[in-house]
Design brief:
Layout lengths: L4 E4 L8 H12 L6 E5 L3 H24 L4 H16 L2 E2 L11 E4 L11 E6 L5 H10 L5 E4 L12 E2 L1 H19 L5 H4 L7 H12 L2 H18 L6 H21 L15 H5 L18 H10 L3 H9 L13
Helix pairs in contact: 1-2, 2-3, 5-8, 7-9, 7-12, 8-9, 11-12
């Protein structure tokens, strides 16, 4: 049996708006992780309530996008909004709607599960054999989110979600060691109201020289973070995580012919806003630093000794002969 994980959330009125709102916020943090099933008593009732909350979240993100001048955030928000608007919620089985994203099912409809189903929400309890059958068909590292607390998961060898969160810490330590060995400190790159542009450029120049290794480290951390969400972390920790993700996004954009937005899916994902502090929204506008031509940028980087960054901007070629595009 594959190893799955369990998060016990507060018991909420079944099918009510409180459950729908919490489920939608939780799913928002995990929406890029394959398919989702919601096991409930009345799918036709819970589905429209969750979808209504989903649309409210989408509108909130549109307001966030309108309230920032940060190009990375605008790109991230635009991708998130588009993804959310195209997600399909259905109250039928995967055999009936194989292209859907979120399935609302009764407990007697779990014979067939969608492939790559990493999110399972339960507002009702399951008989032991039904739970065992479901676990046997879920992928490794799938997360069960139980609002009912009536299923004996401990006897079924389901691991607590904190193990996924501990893996994030281990991967962060590995990533931080990689950066420390190259004298890159995340806390000084994006810690001020105005980003430390020179420090960021220096970091990018260094990382472009080891882009393959760095993207492997960043991808491992990114994956662990994706699987463990939502996370309760401090604002400072989140900023450090965002710094690594943003560096990976920029190194990838500069050094690969085939661009993937995967890193943007975890960049600046403020879980505390969606799950714990929904009454407050913070906007921070970035001041314009002016514009320069490509030739001026290349000249500036060469003068500062950033030869890797200058070469990439000038030729579009990574300054390492053995670069391999990472797989995600």
């Amino acid at each position: 049996m594959t190893k799955c994980y369990l998060e016990l959330r507060g018991s909420i009125k079944r099918g009510g708006l409180d459950l729908a709102a919490d489920l939608a916020r939780h799913l928002h943090t995990r929406q890029y992780l394959g398919k989702t099933i919601v096991v409930c008593e009345r799918p036709s009732v819970l589905l429209p309530n969750v979808h209504k909350q989903w649309l409210r979240l989408s509108r909130t993100i549109q307001k966030q996008r309108a309230g920032t001048a940060n190009a990375d955030k605008i790109l991230k928000y635009t991708r998130t909004i588009t993804h959310m608007q195209h997600m399909r919620f259905v109250a039928c089985t995967p055999l009936e709607a194989p292209d859907a994203d979120v399935y609302f099912l009764r407990r007697n409809q779990l014979e067939s599960l969608p492939m790559h189903c990493f999110n399972v929400y339960l507002s009702i309890s399951l008989p032991t054999q039904t739970a065992l059958d479901m676990l046997a068909h879920l992928p490794a590292e799938a997360l069960l989110v139980d609002y009912d607390h009536g299923t004996p998961w401990r006897s079924l060898n389901v691991a607590p979600k904190r193990e996924l969160e501990e893996q994030v810490t281990r991967e962060w330590h590995a990533a931080r060691t990689f950066l420390d060995e190259r004298h890159i400190q995340p806390e000084i790159l994006f810690g001020a109201p105005l980003h430390n542009v020179e420090a960021v450029d220096n970091a990018l120049d260094t990382l472009l020289g080891v882009s393959h290794q760095f993207l492997q480290v960043a991808a491992a951390f990114n994956r662990s973070l994706e699987l463990a969400r939502p996370l309760r972390i401090t604002k400072t920790t989140r900023q450090h995580y965002d710094t690594l993700t943003l560096l990976a996004h920029r190194v990838q954009a500069l050094s690969t012919a085939s661009f993937t937005p995967r890193f943007l899916e975890t960049y600046n994902e403020d879980d505390t806003f969606y799950l714990y502090d929904s009454g407050r929204i913070y906007f921070r506008r970035a001041s314009s630093l002016g514009f320069e031509s490509l030739t001026e940028a290349v000249t500036r980087h060469l003068a500062a000794g950033r030869h890797n960054l200058a070469q990439v901007l000038r030729t579009g070629q990574v300054p390492t002969a053995d670069f391999i595009t990472p797989c995600f």
